[in-house]
Amino acid sequence: MSSMPYIGLINNTALLLVMGVLYGSLRSRRENLGSQLVSGLVLGMIVVAVMLNPWELAPGIFFDTRTIVLSVGGLFLGLIPTSVAMSLGVLYRIYSGGAGTLTGVLWIVVAGLLGICWGKMRPRPSCHLSGWEFYLFGVVVQCCMLLLMLTMPSNLVAHVLRQISLPTLLIFPVGTFILAKLLAGQDLQHHSNLALDKSERQYRELVHYSQAIILRLDPQGRCLFFNEYAENFFGFDKDRVLGRSLTETIVPVTDSTGRNLHKYFSAFVKNPQAFPVHENENICRDGRRVQILWNNVPVYDESGKVVAIQGIGHDVTEQRRVEASLRAAEKQFHQLIEVSPVPLAIQEQGRVVYVNRKFVEMFGYTLEEIPTLDHWWLLAYPDEGYRESVKRAWHVAAEEGSAGLDEFEPQEFRVTCKDGSVRDILFMVSSIGGQNLVVFNDMTRERTVDRMKSEFIAIAAHELNTPLTTIAGFTEILLEGEHFDWQQRREYLSIIYEKTEVLNRLIEDLLNIGRVESGRGIRLEIETCDIYEVISASVLSYRKEFPARQIRLEWPETWPRAISIDAGKIGQVMNNLLSNSVKYSSEAGEILVGAVVSAREINVFVRDEGVGMTPEQVSRIFERFYRVDVSDTSVPGMGLGMAIVKNIIDAHGGHIRVDSEPDKGTTVSFTLPLIGPSMG
Prior knowledge:
By secondary structure, this protein is α+β, with helices and mostly antiparallel strands. It is built from 20 helices and 19 strands. It has a 5-stranded antiparallel beta sheet with strand order 4-3-7-6-5. α18 packs antiparallel against α20. The longest helix is centred in the first third of the chain and has 56 residues.
């Protein structure tokens, strides 16, 4: 192959690069239409110029670097300038004529379009593309140009491709790469210059018009620059400040705490790197003390020596005063809620930022255990289904409150405490600034009482209905049965009498509870009697009623024969205690009744070997309406017995105690003073 194609194309490429550099230096980068048209005309003239100096293979068939010009022009300049250049190139190629006219025109159009499309498809500006991408772009363009050679007369295609393929693929991609890198470098330099000009302009505006104190010191602490805002703020003219140490103007000898600011300033000037940010008092010309937050930057020369100190100051006097007031108010607020008898928590944007002492006492969770609401949900509501329902209700109430539709509607949920106990809690939320104050009202006792009252009503109805049904039934039999003899009538009347006594005891229990609730207390009918006779009578009665049970009485050899008590009420106490022992123990278990006498009181106890109670059950045994096992329907009762027993013993001036363990039995003991209570 002749070396002529290489020489001609290299010469043409060199011409292109020279013109490209000149064009890149002189072209306008304005975005208006006029500038784009001018750029297109200049680019078109370069296209025509390289076409005027081609390598000619045959008459009418010549090759040049127009494809490099148009493809790179399309990549960097865009649609309008490239279209103008393509138009000029097409006109000149048609004017030149020859067998390769159609192919030459297609080269111009396709090269320009490839550059435009490549630039549009890339997300980054063309000046930021890599050198490899520029080279790849040149290869793609020249491959397309070689394919367009197929549009030439068929008798010339093979010959032309043999002559031109290798030189084109070797030289033109390199030319594309070089021209693109030159233009990219010029564009980057142009952008850098623009950014630098903008930065300098902004810096000048910042320094002169900023609402901040800006000054510059030399290494000896003398002021080199003092902006206009600093003059107005401190009240010192530039002439009074420049060239002097700041200790002569805005730095007082000491601050309000007594710290020596002149020594502090000297340390700062000697080692500014150690004081990048600091805050201190300064003084104005009129004597006002102000708190300034300084940001300092050392300025170095080429050798790394500090030649100046640039400082920017902001007045934080009012801010610090407000912060101090807020801290004092916040401290007072936290002190108030810390000693509050109600559990309180502060929540902010999904985080729990504070819980008071009462919260920890009630629920057991510390702030470290529940730093966010998500942690609270998991611990307080371990059941997943219930937790999701709680979260939905909470979020609905929170959204309505935040939307201003209504205040946060109080929500009541069952909360699981750290010790495993469950409490009914009424949540109330109040917004304070950007925080929510959550108040936890423990409704456990109220809800328990409500449930116990409901149970009591149902049990009382059953307990009252049973004897009433019996009384009504046997009364009806007696009224309708004239043929009954006296023995049968006596038997039926005895049953009616027994059930009447049951009703009487039930009603008496209700009346006693009513007296206690009203504050009147249980009425006692005090008389002097032998306590042994009262206790033994109750034991004997239960032995007869339950002959299969082992009920044993152990009484001390000596005891006070006369004691002032309400014998009927103490008998009621014994009947209740013995009844419970019988109900809650097996027939094989022994029930022991005994007493211990001391100088001031007598202690009577009833001990069984029954099912016993848990500590939680023992703690509630004297509550009204409380039944140890309400699910056990074989153990009737309204849950009033032990409450009445306690009130009877209290009315006598004594004390009652319950000791019990599950599956080991229960001991109930009560004391009676040897000097009896007054009658009332």
